[in-house]
Amino acid sequence: MVKPPKKPGYSEREVKVILEDIDSQFRVFGEGMEQVNCRLDKIDGRLDQIDGRLTRVETDVSMIKIVLKSVATKDDLLVIDRRLTALEAR
Questions:
Q1: In a domain, 53, yes or no
Q2: For labeling, which of 1, 11, 74, 81 is most exposed (least CB within 10 Å)?
């Protein structure tokens, strides 16, 4: 008896094995993605903290700039010193 020629393609068993392998790979990928998401959540929290600190630093720098505008410069102090020396000499 002559066997009919085999159809090109995969047998049902081969397809099941391939699908099980793909399923397994997707599970591993999903687990990896959970770890990545967890790390991203931690990084996001740290960035929020850094953003808050940076905002406070910016506010402090703005305040310092305002205060520095009212502080006498070295040249101002030299002028005052000369005037005071002149007054003391009288």
A1: yes
A2: 1
Over range 30-59, report the average pLDDT: 96
Q: In which residue are the tokens 């940076």 written?
A: 54
7 within some domain? no
Q: Residues 23, 25, 28, 29: is their CA dihedral positive or negative? A: negative
First to last CA, the chain: 137
CA distance 67 to 39: 42
The answer to whether position 68 is within a domain reads yes
- Which pLDDT band, with edges at 50, 70 and 90, does 9 fall under? confident
Torsion angle of C-alpha atoms 48, 54, 56, 57, degrees rounded to 10? 170
What pLDDT, on a 0 to 100 scale, did the predictor assign at position 10? 87
Flag whether 4 is in a domain. no
